[in-house]
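Tokens for chain A. Residues wanted.
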């Protein structure tokens, strides 16, 4: 049976059922969190980062047959931001914006549309953030594994690059290995019980709830960024990070992420605007604090 691929990416989404997941919003009301996250300067920078990382990823991946991307936003995201997102995705018919209205769970609208797109066939629902990227080989790689896996199996690419700004306009690069990282994490399902990637719960403990199939490669399978508006600086397992001149970093990354260029890396050096806004940092349950997910499942 053919497989439909649907990528899910939240863009500055604020909902009641996700407030407590993030350090900067966990003690706020919905109104307070939106004031923080919808700061104009923050949104304009996020749009530029999205344009350089997630958007070109989806532009490549949605060229495959039965491959789609859903960008999930609040229905009341500021109008200038919605307009710019619409302009950016306009050339790509298989990239769609999904609105979450007040009181809705962020999980419901993208699942409903994903099921419609699957049209009774098998579905692979995967996720990554608006400031990260996947390689053009991602769909073919996942397909080669998913075709032989049972429904309800989670697939996790485990190795990739983590990049961040470095002194003197350089780029810090670390080759990381981490099972069940959210980047490219997905689940295969069918009409008997369709699942979306947002139904898996905390990604670092997903192995406690679902069978997990790990995929490793000699080449990086994801690209994760760190910058002024995103998550913690927690080190991930792997060789020590290395600072490289921006041009050298760009040439290295282009081997697997051909859409990454100097402009993509420069945007990571842009400082946050002078406002109280900050990108929410996802928290992991206290019971798992300081722990990495164990090696589970199989894959090559």
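Reply:
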């Amino acid at each position: 049976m053919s497989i439909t691929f649907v990528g899910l990416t939240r863009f500055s989404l604020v909902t009641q059922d996700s407030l407590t997941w993030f350090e900067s919003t966990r003690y706020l009301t919905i109104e307070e969190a939106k004031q923080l996250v919808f700061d104009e300067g923050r949104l304009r920078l996020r749009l530029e980062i999205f344009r350089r990382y997630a958007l070109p990823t989806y532009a490549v991946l949605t060229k495959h047959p039965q491959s789609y991307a859903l960008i999930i936003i609040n229905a009341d995201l500021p109008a200038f931001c919605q307009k710019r997102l619409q302009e950016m995705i306009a050339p790509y018919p298989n990239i769609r914006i999904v609105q979450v209205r007040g009181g809705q769970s962020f999980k419901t609208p993208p699942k409903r549309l994903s099921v419609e797109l699957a049209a009774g066939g098998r579905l692979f629902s995967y996720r990554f953030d608006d400031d990260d990227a996947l390689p053009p080989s991602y769909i073919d790689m996942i397909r080669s594994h998913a075709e032989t896996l049972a429904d309800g199996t989670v697939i996790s690419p485990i190795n990739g690059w983590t990049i961040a700004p470095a002194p003197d306009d350089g780029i810090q690069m670390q080759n990381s290995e981490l099972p069940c990282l959210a980047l490219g994490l997905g689940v295969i399902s069918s009409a008997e019980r369709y699942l979306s990637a947002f139904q898996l719960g905390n990604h670092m403990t997903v192995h406690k709830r679902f069978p997990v199939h790990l995929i490793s490669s000699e080449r990086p399978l994801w690209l994760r960024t760190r910058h002024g508006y995103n998550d913690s600086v927690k080190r991930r397992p792997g060789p020590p990070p290395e600072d490289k001149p921006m041009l050298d970093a760009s040439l290295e990354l282009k081997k697997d992420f051909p859409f990454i260029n100097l402009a993509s890396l420069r945007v990571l050096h842009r400082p946050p605007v002078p406002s109280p806004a900050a990108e929410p940092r996802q928290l992991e349950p206290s019971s798992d604090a300081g722990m990495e997910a164990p090696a589970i499942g199989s894959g090559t």
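The longest helix spans residues 40-52. The chain is about 25% helix and 20% strand.
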